Amino acid sequence: MNNQQKSELLLAAVILSRSTSFVLSKSAMNSLTPFNLLAVRFLTAFIFLAILFWKKLIYIQKTELKYGFFLGLLYTIMMGCELTGLRATDSGTTSFIENSAMIFVPIFQFVFLKKKIRATESLRIILAVTGIAFLTLGASGGLLRSGCIYLLGSAIFYASAILVTNIASRKGDPLMIGITQVFTIGFLSLIMSFILEQPRLPQTGTEWTMILALAIICSGFGFTLQPVAQRGTTAERAGMMCALSPLSASLQGVIILHDQMSPYKLAGCLMILFSLLVPVLLNSLHRPLTRRPVYNH
């Protein structure tokens, strides 16, 4: 297994661990407001990380602080949109629309970095957009409902964060950048909670259990190690792997929260997942067949 494969395996684990946050956050918001939840979750995660890596944090560089803060700002906006949308829709739809970031990554690279979109990427974008359209059809109100508008905003900021992470992870220690971004999300969310909400600490054992699961699994592992994982791969590949999250979140939503899997939603899921597999399928078609040797008798 080469370094890129190891990085992408770690990235897959990171994305799958973060996918559990949709179900946990949906349940936690029965009693906690969005920014209050984010503040407690990420500041708790930072405390764990600071205890584990305090020796390295002493020598953190200005560049790592700068990129960590900027990524934390992007993720704070992204997750504010995510939780607002999650309150209005189910966990599977939330994850699918948010992870349409895979569409925006190549588009942003074309607009800002003048990097041409390949035919394969164009096909993936068309399939993913069609999948999102199917996902929001029917009695749900489609993209016009407020929840989906927020989720599209979340996807745009997620794509931006993927591109910035691709740059930042090569400018310093990606672990230190990841820890800084976790602290920044918690700190900015706390400020927003004081401005927009009435923040409080979790009161019950159930609330603390969900917070600790979100803090350790989704934030401590999921967010912190994304810069580490992305250092060994490309922004395009990281964007493609976003499709792992909706599949996991949808299954968790159906099993744990008893979300409904309508025919429209199933069609949307399949199309978005197929968009992820397009490069693999095309490569297999273009791979020359191994010819058996011909023996003359």
Structure characterization notes:
The protein is 76% helix and 0% strand. The chain starts with a helix and ends in an 11-residue tail after the last helix. The chain is built from 14 helices and no strands. The longest helix has 26 residues.
**Oligomeric form of this entry?**
single chain
Number of helical segments? 14
Q: Return the structural class.
A: mainly alpha
Average pLDDT across residues? 82
Question: What are the defining features of this structure?
Answer:
single chain, 297 residues, mainly alpha, 14 helices
Summarize the structure.
By secondary structure, the chain is mainly α.
Topology summary:
Layout: H1 3-28, H2 34-52, H3 54-57, H4 62-86, H5 91-98, H6 101-113, H7 119-135, H8 146-168, H9 174-196, H10 205-223, H11 226-230, H12 235-240, H13 244-256, H14 263-286
